[in-house]
Design brief:
This protein has four helices and four strands. By secondary structure, the chain is α+β, with helices and mostly antiparallel strands. The protein has one domain. It has a four-stranded antiparallel sheet with strand order 1-2-3-4, with helices on both faces. A hairpin with a 2-residue loop joins strand 3 and strand 4.
Length: about 130
């Protein structure tokens, strides 16, 4: 018996949605719970910086940018915002600490996903350096 393409996509989408929900619920941060895929970078920043004044990057520990190339040869800009619940900023040593930050992956200005599980899968698929565990 062969699955139809539509059914396969539906099952795959359901599994991915469930995995994202589990990965993000483990963080248990009310700001992260308000994020959703597809929202713009500015909206994501407004959500994670709720309650701060002035600085649009108040709770961003640091950010990295990468070029991602798809199979068609098109390049996309990936911006990784390392969200810090406490508002810590990267100093001279900008080593990302997994327990203190949560990566938010933004591609072409839209939130694609967040959490270390999501980041790690994106990093492996696109030869992006993994953060130390």
């Amino acid at each position: 018996m062969q699955l139809s393409i539509t059914r396969f996509r539906t099952v795959t989408t359901g599994v991915l949605t469930g995995a994202i929900a589990i990965a993000t619920s483990a963080c248990s941060d009310s700001r992260l719970e308000k994020l959703s895929t597809g929202i713009g970078r500015d909206s994501a920043l407004a959500i994670i910086n709720e309650g701060t004044s002035g600085d649009s990057l108040a709770r961003v520990f640091k950010q990295d940018s990468y070029w991602l190339q798809n199979k068609k040869g098109n390049a996309h800009v990936a911006n990784i915002l390392y969200y810090s619940r406490k508002g810590a900023k990267a100093a001279a040593d900008s080593t990302v600490i997994r327990g203190a930050t949560t990566p938010i992956v933004i591609v072409d200005g839209k939130v694609l996903g967040w959490g270390w599980t999501y980041y790690d899968s994106l990093a492996v698929a696109n030869n992006i350096p993994l953060a130390a565990k």
